[in-house]
Amino acid sequence: MEQSKIIYTNRSFEVHFRPGKSAFCLITFNPLETRSNGRFYWGRPLAEKWDYTCLGFVTHGNDWFPESDMLEAAEVLKPYLNGRNVLYGFSMGAYAAVRYSKLLNAELVLAFSPLLSIDPQDVPHDSRWHKLHRPELHSNMRVREEHVQGDLLVFYDPLLPSDAWHGQEISGYPQGVALPLPFTGHETLAVAMQFPGFSGIINRCVYDRDSLADYMKAGRRRSSMFHFLAAAKMAERGKYRWSIALLDKADELGGAEASDHDALRLKIYALSKQDEDAEVLLSTMARPGDMETRAWRTWADAADIFGERSLFALCDRLYEAILKTPSLLFYERYITCLQNRGDYCRIAMLVAAAIAAFPEDVRIPIKAGDAFLQGSQEVCAILMYEIVITRQPSLTWPHHALFRIYNSRNDLVMINRILRRTLDFQINDDATKGYRKRFGVE
Hints:
Blueprint: E1 5-9, E2 13-18, E3 25-29, H1 44-50, E4 53-59, H2 67-76, E5 85-90, H3 92-99, E6 108-112, E7 151-156, H4 161-171, E8 176-180, H5 188-192, H6 201-207, H7 212-221, H8 224-236, H9 240-253, H10 258-272, H11 275-284, H12 293-308, H13 312-322, H14 328-341, H15 344-357, H16 363-374, H17 378-391, H18 396-408, H19 412-424, H20 430-439
Parallel strand pairs: 3-4, 3-5, 5-6, 6-7, 7-8
Antiparallel strand pairs: 1-2, 2-4
Helix pairs in contact: 8-9, 8-10, 9-10, 10-11, 10-12, 12-13, 12-14, 14-15, 14-16, 15-16, 16-17, 17-18, 18-19, 19-20
């Protein structure tokens, strides 16, 4: 097996080259979650399985393949780009595959969940990645018709409005072909990878493209993940019978998502008020693994729904099971749930457990302090804010909260003490300085 080697690197990405026996060069671009490490490039298992000649572009961080760096790389890589080139990417990588298809002399582009841009001026209605846009790095980012070359196969979810807009725009370019994957959300590739024979997708697109649409339809019918995601969408729309039917089909097809399936079924029972079925399922369903975050979030969703419906025993039972593995996220969610029903005693017990589990954390005492304060439980709120100050003295919020509590009581002694403590901790934001000036504490 031929080994890849790094043939180019710059501030944004590195490029791996793997010699192979294919009649074309596969050029891959990584998604946001992948980072360069000097060894791995996105698409490597595919290239090795089929012995493709491959160029693998891998970013060092959230770089989004800046134009200036790609122009420089293309100049250096010219000797590798003279033949037939097939570009392949997902999300950020799909953006690059489309955006630089002409620059890299593409014959064919496979773009899963591609994006036109992340520049707020280009896509003001899609803020998912605005915070990653850096004007000094990402000039001229938007994909335009003059950037595109080759047959363009665009896989996207037409039911996800943000992705659908990008997908429709890109597939509308000359030689663009829309290949919808409904109910998949942004994770089109994760679903498609479950389709039988998906590892041969590149060969199919190159040599047998007429069969592609039928292959994708057949793949959806045989994918447990597709049916699971469709069931979740139907549940969101209140179509509970359809949702259960789709989930039954997902179970029938099998797969590695049993805990996700059970968690979604429980959530559907909570939404559709099938409480007896929920009780039975809860007593038999397996506890998800510690790393199965999607299943745990769905458990918490079900717990919140039971709480909103005043089925507190079911709600508490679920959260107690969830928090056998302590989690700041789920402590916060449970506090919100308890606050909504006014159960401040249980909040106090929960905070005690959270403080023991996370001795350096301030999120939970702040969250609990705010809940107590909104519920007129001022003594408990004061205790929470004092815990926060003990752990992170320089935070302004707890000092301000305590000032407001004592000011509402007209307790000048405690106001003076709080404001003098802000001097000791060198807290000098405008609001704090204003409070000190108002009460003559200098």
